Each structure stands twice: as structure tokens, then as C-alpha cells.
Amino acid sequence: MLLQKKKAWEMSRREFLKAVAGGVALSAVTYPLWRKFGRYFLEEKEAVFTAAVSSYSKNLREIIISGFQELGVTKAEIKGKRVLLKPNLVEPQLGSEHINTHPLMVRAAIEAFLSYGAIEVVVGEGTAHNHDTLNCLEATGLGDVLLEDSIRFIDFNNCSIQKRQNLGNKSKLGDLYLPLEVSRADIVVSLAKMKTHHWAGVTLSMKNMFGVMPGSFYGWPKNVLHQVGIVSSILDINSTVCPDFAIIDGIVGMEGDGPIMGSPVTSGVLVMGRNPAAVDATGARLMGVDPTKIPYLRQASGWLGTIGEKNIEQRGENWQTVRTNYRLVDKIPAQQGLRLK
């Protein structure tokens, strides 16, 4: 099940705490010890599916369903569940396939989850560089897709929010203020774009979760998150929201000075899996980037998932056969020394 690992995590946590505390009641010291060290004792292999896809005209719905099958996702896991898809919308530019998650990729994910019995699929995003999420929605063509398919859209920049405990506690953000719709969803899916990034090195499914943070609270372009640290914010958001699934649109990606000023690169891949850290590690390798050199991935490994190649069971295409070296900019500090040998 999509939530099976969460339940196993909770059980393992109890067992770990029992061993550490010798049966004594949970203390304020013990739980942080689990959070910091517990996953290292439990690190499991993660499966990641990679498909070679030459264009957006291909049957993306069937490719995602093939990914479900390769990853062991069953209809019983999704039937009757509310699914929230979080694409990457950055700039309101129609036809700029390298900037935003392609509308046809979003449609394919909607259809795949509905075909597996989801009771509802909704799409939500809170754009960072452009204050007007709805303008971005319309200009990219995604609005037309959602209207045609009768899919509800939530503007995360202007919506009902709730306070949630920060389970990562890596930054100085304190409690997180998240859209109410995130908590209402049974399954949260990060539907990212494959891009290099000026500040994070690469932006994939984990960095994509910045978009759930309401601009009305965290500013533009999510200034507060930048001020407290991009890496620590990525870790806090992902450990608190804990996305159940990650799908990366790498059919046409962005190289160079991303996430806006870079150039398109046709890399022809779709990457997906249950664990965002493992999916992003494979995504980075597909870009010719060493995931151990990406600070947020290095810190996530052994805690939020795994990034080690030996711990990732590759399904579908072997990443080495479909690798495309994305152009890195030497003068950008975050991109220096990232090339995978």
C-alpha cells in the first residue's frame, strides 16, 4: 500500500524507542533520538520506475499505469481515496515545455489515478515567482485541461490553511502553515519537472513541494523559506507533508540557470516511485548529476528515504541507458562539482 511504509515506520519507531528506553515511557529526549538516528537502522531498498518517452503525444496514462504495475501499486490502495496532484507551475508561458509540468502529464496522472479507483483527484499549486496562480494556470494550458476533465484546482497561495507541527525541525520555521486541502488528501503526489536550479543544484519532486507553502503566509517568491534556508526548508516540508508518490516529467527538461532562465533539453524520460528521495536520486543520475553532492538529498538519505544506487531497485529502463547530461553552469555555486562520473 502507499501508506504501508508509514505504518511500518510507526511500528519500527515504537520498537526502537522501546529498546532505547528499556520499556520506560517516551521522553522528550528519546523521540528526537529516533528522528535523528532511527532510520539509519531501518533503511530499506526503494523501487523507482523509469520510462523512455520520446514526446508528450505518447500514451502517458498507460505509461504511468505501467509504472504502477512495476512498482506493485494495486487498485485496492487507491480505490476510494482522495488524490492531490501538485504539479510545478512557475511562469505563465504557453508552449514553454521546459518550465512547467506539461498539462498532458497532469492529465495522464489524473486519468491513471481515476482508473485505479480514486474517488476524487484534485490539483493544487501555489506559484512562487508569479503572484497570480490562476493566471499561470490559464496561460500554461493546464486550466483548459482541468476544465475539460472537470477537475478541481486549489490555489495554495490563497486558500484555507492550518497549523501543523514541523516534523523535520531542520530550519527555524517552527510550526508549518499548510493548505487545509493537503491534510484532507489521502494520497499526495509531487508531479515535478526535471530541472537544474540556481540555488538547490537540481529541482525535482522534493523541491517541488515548495509550492504547497501559501504565498499569502510565506511571501513571494516564498521569501521566508529562502531566508531560513532552502535545504532545511525542503527537508521540513517533505518530512511534514510526506508525499506518498513522486512523478517527474523529464520528457523535456531544463538545463543551465534553472528553474526559469535555463534552456530546454529533450531527455525523454518519466520517473516515478513511492519514495521522493529515491525518485530524485534517480532523476539526478538521469541528468548526469551525483545525488550525493545535492545537500538536501544527502541529508534526506537514511531519514526520508535512500539515495544510494545499491539501495534503489530500478524498474523499467536502466538509468544509465537513458542518461542525458544536463548543462551545469560553473559560475553558479550550487551547480559546481555536481557532475556524475
Q: Element order, helices and strands?
A: HHEHHEHEHHEEEHEEHHHEEHHE
> Overall mean pLDDT score?
89
Strand segment count: 11
Total number of helical segments? 13
Low-confidence stretches: 3-41
The share of residues in helices is 25-40%
CATH topology term of the largest domain: Rossmann fold
Count of folded domains: 2
Cα gyration radius (Å): 19 Å
What is the CATH C level class of the largest domain, in words? Alpha Beta
The major sheet is characterized as:
9 strands, mixed
Structural class: alpha/beta
Distance between the termini: 36 Å
Explain what this protein looks like in three dimensions.
It is built from 13 helices and eleven strands. The protein is α/β, with parallel strands linked by helices and 341 residues long. The chain has two domains: 42 residues, no CATH class; 292 residues, 3-Layer(aba) Sandwich (Rossmann fold), CATH 3.40.50. The strands form two sheets. Strands 1, 2, 3, 4, 7, 8, 9, 10 and 11 form a nine-stranded mixed sheet that branches. The longest helix has 18 residues. A hairpin with a 3-residue loop joins strand 7 and strand 8.
